[in-house]
Write a structure and sequence with these properties.
Helix content: 10-25%
Structural class: alpha+beta
Number of strands: 10
Pfam families: RcpC, SAF
Number of domains: 2
Strand content: 15-25%
Domain SAF: 58-118
Shape: rod-shaped
Largest sheet: 6 strands, antiparallel
Protein name: Flp pilus assembly protein CpaB
InterPro entries: Pilus_assmbl_Flp-typ_CpaB, RcpC_dom, SAF
């Protein structure tokens, strides 16, 4: 019995010695360096801004290169770009453009809408049904010092010099409130409120366009159809001036647009004319035969008979 107890105690002491030795070995080792924390993912500010901006932009179909008229568009002609400001009525997917046929030449970078596939050039898309686009020659004086811009409204004045046809010189308003469609090669807005042609993209192109506008030698006016003849006569009868009207005036855009009040405005413009009735489209005045004073002298009458002629008293 005693021997068994001694053996058990000896085993326990052996196990305790082993545990104590292992623990001492562990404590005697130098502490392991702390593991570095896993690096956090780095998100660039540029990438974040690009993602946010991409969510605020909308797709617009644009032309990759210039296309001729009457040729159906293919997938190689168009691309989708995302714009922050989307033009009204623009196409938003390639399926809306591929296979359609433009009826006029379109330049590279043009954003497409339904009007891109309708007939008519830029001027035809800038005037109303009752208007006609008519070009008038200008210089720095006639054109308000070269400061005219498409979209301005002007009064057309006529200056008549004193001559045999005019008893005295006069100045009068031939047609009021006429809209400028273009100045030189610079066009204004189409009927849908969008630029008739794509605006200059760079600062250099804008500067060149401003120089060409200042040096323009012709402007195109949106003339009501009943007044075309008047403007043609005025341009040949005397010297024209374009007087710019204030941008603060109201309803200028509808001045000649109403069908019901058009005759009244034409008649009002006729009443304002001075010493030039031809412009009122009323026809030339009747000529009155001049009165010859009787001097009491009788003139001979030449009587022709056959091949001979004789003078009778």
């Amino acid at each position: 019995m005693n021997s068994r107890i001694s053996m058990v105690l000896a085993g326990l002491l052996l196990v305790g010695a082993l545990i104590a030795g292992y623990w001492g070995l562990v404590l005697s080792r130098p502490p392991a360096p702390n593991a570095a924390p896993a690096p956090e993912p780095v998100i660039s500010v540029e990438k974040t801004v690009a993602v946010v901006e991409d969510q605020t932009r909308q797709p617009v179909v644009v032309l990759v290169h210039a296309v001729p008229p009457f040729v159906p568009l293919t997938a190689a002609d168009v691309a989708v770009e995302k714009l922050r400001t989307v033009p009204v009525g623009s196409l938003t997917s390639l399926d809306q453009a591929i296979g359609r046929t433009p009826l006029r030449a379109l330049g590279a970078g043009t954003w497409l809408n339904d009007e891109s596939f309708t007939p008519g050039g830029p001027l035809a898309r800038m005037i109303r049904a009752n208007e006609r686009a008519l070009a008038v020659a200008v210089d720095e004086v006639i054109g308000a010092g070269g400061q005219l811009s498409p979209g301005d409204y002007v009064d057309i004045l006529l200056f008549l010099r004193q001559d045999n046809a005019n008893a005295e010189q006069s100045a009068q308003v031939v047609i009021p409130a006429i809209r400028l469609l273009s100045v030189g090669d610079q066009l204004g807005l189409a009927n849908d409120g969008q630029p008739a042609v794509p605006p200059p993209a760079t600062a250099e192109e804008r500067a060149q366009a401003a120089q060409r506008r200042t040096a323009a030698r012709s402007v195109v006016l949106a003339v009501p159809e009943p007044l075309l003849s008047r403007l043609m006569l005025a341009s040949q009868a005397g010297m024209l001036r374009l007087a710019v009207r204030s941008a603060d005036e109201q309803l200028l855009s509808r001045y000649w647009a109403g069908e019901s009040d058009m005759p009244d405005k034409v008649q009002s413009a006729n009443r304002d004319l001075y010493q030039f009735t031809q412009l009122a489209l009323t026809g030339p005045p009747k000529k009155i035969a001049p009165v010859v004073a009787d001097t009491g002298q009788r003139r001979g009458v030449e009587v022709i008979r056959g091949a001979a002629a004789q003078q009778t008293p």
